[in-house]
C-alpha cells in the first residue's frame, strides 16, 4: 500500500535493534483516515471470504481492527488482553507469547464467550516481526474451534522470519507494507 509506505518513509524513525518507530500515525497517535484506507485494502484482499469476527491483541491493533471492521460489515472486534484483571471473568483461552517490542513474555487472554467454534476470524495487527503474537492468536483460535480466514498486517519486517513462516503454513497473509531493510545510521527504509 503506497500510502502507508510513504508515511513510513516520511515519518518513520529507524532505531538500533531493528526497531521502526511509527508512533506519529500508527501505534501511539492514530491516523484514523489512514486506518480506514488500510481496512478498505484488507476488505479488497479478503473479498469473498466469510469473516464474522476480527481478532487482535491490545493495544496497538485495536484502532486498526475497529476501522477495518467497518469494511467487513461492522463485524465484532475482539482483542486479546495481555494481563489478567478483575474485569476478566468466566472461562478463557490463554496462551503465552514473546513480544519483540517489549522483549518479554506475557499472557494472551480471550474470554471464551467472545470466540466460538465455527467463527471465521480475520487476525489484524500493526506489526509482524517474528510472528510470535500471531502464533498466539492462531493457537487461541484453534482452541476455540474458530477458522483463521486470513491475517492483515500493517507493517511486516520482511527481513525477519514471521511472515515467511506464516505463508509456508498456508495462511493468507496480507501485509500492507513489507520492509525489506532499514538502516538506523542513515534512516533509510527499503520496501519489498
For the structure shown, list the relevant keywords:
28% helix; 192 residues; six-stranded mixed beta sheet; alpha/beta; Rossmann fold; 5 helices
What's the number of extended β-strand segments? 10
Topology as a string of helices (H) and strands (E): HEEHEHEEEEHEHEE
Radius of gyration, taken over Cα atoms and rounded to an integer in Å? 16 Å
Overall geometric form: globular
Low-confidence stretches: none
Mean pLDDT: 94
The CATH topology comes to Rossmann fold
How far is the N terminus from the C terminus? 11 Å
EC number: 2.4.2.22
GO molecular function: xanthine phosphoribosyltransferase activity
Main location: cytoplasm
Binding site for xanthine: 20, 27, 157
Could you explain how this protein is built, in words?
This protein has 192 residues and is of the alpha/beta class. The chain has a single domain, classed as Rossmann fold. Helix content is 28%, strand content 33%. It is built from 5 helices and 10 strands; from the N terminus they run αββαβαββββαβαββ. Strands 4-3-7-8-9-10 form a 6-stranded mixed beta sheet, sandwiched between helices. It has a two-stranded antiparallel sheet with strand order 1-2. The protein has a two-stranded antiparallel ribbon with strand order 5-6. Strand 7 (120-128), helix 4 and strand 8 form a beta-alpha-beta unit. The longest helix has 14 residues, at 32-45. The radius of gyration is 16 Å and the shape is globular. The protein starts with a helix and ends with a strand. The mean pLDDT is 94. Residues 44-154 form the Phosphoribosyltransferase domain. This is Xanthine phosphoribosyltransferase. Belongs to the purine/pyrimidine phosphoribosyltransferase family. Xpt subfamily.
